[in-house]
Amino acid sequence: MTRSSTIPWQAKYVALAVIWGSSFLLMKVALSALAPLQISAFRIYSGALVLLILLKVTHAKLPRDARTWGHLAFSSAFLTVLPFIGFVVGETRVSSALAGIGNAFTPISAVIFGLLLLPQDRLTGRRLLAVMAGFVGVIVIAEPWSSTSGPDLVGFGIVLAAAACYGIGWSWQRRFLHHADLGGLAQPTAVLLAGSVLMTPVLLTWWWLHHDVAATPWSLTPGVHGEHPVWLAVVCVLVLGIVGTGLAYMLQFDVVRAAGVVVSTTVTYLIPVVSVLLGVLVLGEHLGTFQILGFAVVLVAAWVINAKPRAAVD
């Protein structure tokens, strides 16, 4: 019996929601001993290493032509480097729960950038209303009319920009890589490898500018953005990379093969729910009434955007 058939895809689906939903808590704790760029870099490096090992085990092959790698590198900037940095930087100013809520903006951004990059995509009336509702939900979450009760607008804006990056990256891949032979784990492995190359000069530049604080690019900086133990912060980064970025991709592909793409994308709705629950229950974070209300609006808008239209009845 194969590995994929021993565990039901439903169990893997739930595991994905928990793994990706907990990534916001892991980033928050990791900030107690590491700078945002360090967390982002080590997440990409460890995830790429895990997928390289899995690629070797499954005997899958990476692409060879330069054109494919060029498109992979461009999309990787928006699927790994920029969002991974953005979410961690955002969490230096907002809670992990709010960062998870910001991630729910991803399906909305995918529609927007899909219209720009994919000529075949059409904005139906239903989707237009959902996108507009999603923006209303974002405004409600941000509470721009209040200077005291709302979240940090800069931090929340960074989180939203990070979520929007996913829409650009996936739309780019759909347009320029839909004919490429990237079966199995080849595509996520290539994306993380390209992200590792792109992230390295960014990390080294950060270290060069902050060498008075960090003796090496991997030096710890305890107590900068939190009070959790150093060892716990390091463990969180390793879990974030190995499990949340490496093994999660493998689970995602298993779910896609077993249940289809449409079902697999619905995990997007559970991720912010998990992040909110963990942020509130584990870290003691608090969400105001407007954040909860806006979150519900954004979540419904994302569901409507991805919902399959009903077939016409003769």
Topology summary:
Elements: H1 3-6, H2 9-30, H3 36-58, H4 66-91, H5 96-103, H6 106-117, H7 125-142, H8 153-176, H9 186-209, H10 230-259, H11 261-265, H12 267-281, H13 289-306
Helix pairs in contact: 2-5, 2-10, 2-12, 3-4, 3-9, 3-10, 4-8, 4-9, 5-8, 5-12, 6-8, 6-13, 7-13
Task: Tell me about this structure.
Helix content is 73%, strand content 0%. The chain has 314 residues and is an all-alpha fold. The chain is globular, with a radius of gyration of 19 Å. The N and C termini lie far apart (44 Å). The model has no long low-confidence stretch (mean pLDDT 87).
Helix and strand content put the structural class at mainly alpha
Shape verdict = globular
Instruction: List SSEs in N-to-C order.
Output: HHHHHHHHHHHHH
Measured by DSSP, the beta-strand proportion falls in under 5%
Total strands: 0
Span between termini: 44 Å
Summarize the structure.
The protein is mainly α and about 325 residues long. Helix content is about 75%, strand content about 0%.
